[in-house]
Amino acid sequence: MAENNTNKPGNNGQAPDPSRRGFLKNSGIAVGGAAGGALLGGLFTNQFGKKDEKKSSAGNDKKTEKRFEEARMFFTRFADFAILEQATERIFPEDKNGPGAIGLGVPYFIDKQLAGPYGNNVKDYRQGPFTNGNGTAADSSLNRGEIIINGLRMMSEESMKRFDTKFDEASEEQQTEILKDFEADKVKIKGISSKSFFKLLRTLTLEGAYCDPLYGGNRNMEGWKMKEYPGSIASYANMIEEKEFIKMDQISLTDYQPK
After folding, report:
1. How far is it, in rounded angstroms, from Cα 22 to Cα 1?
2. What are the start-end ranges of the E strands in 129-247?
3. pTM of the model
4. Torsion of CA 149, 150, 152, 153, to 10 degrees
5. Which ranges are annotated Polar residues under compositional bias (predicted)?
6. In which region does residue 243 sit, left (phi positive, over 0), alpha (psi from -120 to 50) or beta (all else)?
7. Are 88 and 208 in contact (CB under 8 A)?
8. Is 98 helix (H, G, I), strand (E, B) or coil?
9. Dist. CA 75–CA 48, nearest whole Å
10. Residue 54 to residue 107: CA distance in whole angstroms
């Protein structure tokens, strides 16, 4: 006759716990690693593993190494960041000389700048009077971060109005047309003139292309390489008397960090 194990102690000498707490505890130990891991892994993979086929700063158009330092800090909406990517690429496009703004990591440079004191106009006089809608970035009651966000969203609105498509999905010719109208001050933006917004965006783009990589742009010093600029050289004393042009390897501020 089969032995009744209902009241028989377990391996630890204690009677089994028939309660709901005991069931969850025991089943969690048994299958938590396998089932729980698989469930969570599938959940996060499905949510975050989708890739956008359009070229972006992440280099989705081809295999690239993961850059963990390139994480958005200011742009909480990816839609805004996507507009920034395409706008900066039109201002500083890729050509036979080298990568464009996206390849140089310019959008992430701008993101980092706007997330810090510069984006919040921390060191600027902010008491007014302001000439909102007509003046420069310094004459606006909006800080630089707000100016960039307003300008990018207006670019998307203009693209939808003219071409029935989002700015980051418009053709290069359509994107360029909108940017030229912003530069010519033909578009109205809340809090600042479109000309001043474009000037700020262009300035940030160029700074991101040629800054020291320490600040998040000029990826792999490619911006300097295109101009044959050596970068952060500590001293030219050993070559200052040379009459011929000397082509040097690029050096970043990060190269001076202790190993």
Report:
1. 29
2. 188-189, 192-193
3. 0.73
4. 110
5. 1-14
6. alpha
7. yes
8. strand
9. 17
10. 15
112 CA to centre of own chain? 8
pLDDT in tens, 155-167: 999 999 999 999 9
Instruction: Provide the token pair at 180.
Output: 């030229």
Q: Could you give the CA distance from residue 182 to residue 152 in angstroms, rounded to a whole number?
A: 11
**Side-chain-facing half-sphere of 194: CA atoms under 13 Å:** 17
Tokens representing residue 85 in the block: 């990517």
129: preceding bond cis by omega (within 30 degrees): yes
Q: Which two tokens stand for residue 89?
A: 């690429």
Q: Please check whether residue 85 is in contact with residue 102, taking contact to mean a CB–CB distance below 8 angstroms.
A: yes
Among 187, 196, 170, 193, smallest CA distance to 87 is for 170
Location of structure tokens 């990568």? 99
C-alpha torsion angle, residues 250, 253, 257, 259 (rounded to 10): -20
- pLDDT at 190 (0 to 100): 85
User: Confidence band (pLDDT; 50, 70, 90) for 54?
Assistant: low
**Distance between CA atoms of residues 220 and 128, nearest Å:** 41
User: Which whole-number Å values give the CA distances from 245 to 7, 42, 228, 240, 251, in the listed order?
Assistant: 92, 57, 10, 10, 17
- pLDDT band at 133; cut points 50, 70, 90: low
Distance (Å, whole) CA 21 – CA 62: 50
SS3 state of residue 222: helix
Find the angle CA(230)-CA(233)-CA(238) to the nearest 5 degrees. 100
